[in-house]
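Backbone geometry:
***
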Amino acid sequence: MPSAPEQAGYKLPQVTAMFWVLKIAATTLGETGGDLLAQTLHLGYAAASVLFLVIFVVSLGAQLRSRRFRPAVYWTVIAATSTAGTTMSDLINRGPGSGTDTAGGLGYGAGAALLISGLAVIFLIWRGSGQTFDVNDITNLRGETLYWAAILLSNTLGTSLGDYLSDSSGLGYWGSAALIAVVMAAILAAHYFTAISGVLLFWMAFILTRPLGATVGDLFSKPHDKGGLGFGTYGTTAVLLAILIGGIAYSYKTTRARAVEPESAAVPDKV
């Protein structure tokens, strides 16, 4: 954990268990929230993408202007990248309407290839910029801008991967979620028991949380005849939003506690 002086200029959260809980909740919320507007309310993928991109740009502006870590702002941007990633992926793969087939779009294969290429370009630019890939050391505007660009592309790619696994691979929602969970467990084991770069493992896990969120979101929200649990986009979105808000409140509490600890430690005990 950074010291109190370092925390003052630090704008990204520490990677803890709570970070991953909130990341999965936010990405799952992105899946159900994106589907709620684009499919349930028939706004369409094109219009929903424009709306969520506007929300992303506005919230990102607040995040970039902030001088320290603000949990509500940070997780709002994460949720915005997830919802925008959901509708942008569906726009590329399925077309501008609100249908679930790929006849009007590029399809999952071509769409994934396009998004993988885009994400690779972001990482190449990032590497050439000289900025660190380690999120624990990102403290300047250029590094944070590249960080958010990678997150937006990775969430869009993750949606495509999740939809492909759920809809076209034959695994279904349960099988897809289980497969991704096993891979993430392997990444966690590699973190503790191998010498593989922690930065590489972080980004692998970070990208995989998006298809996990996509498959889990579909599992809870889709009707029984499509292999889901039938809770609907309204109910699932409301529960996930409550979890995210609760996690943000907890983050504020722990952030304040860490800020007070150094001051308390500096006061000598009375004899």
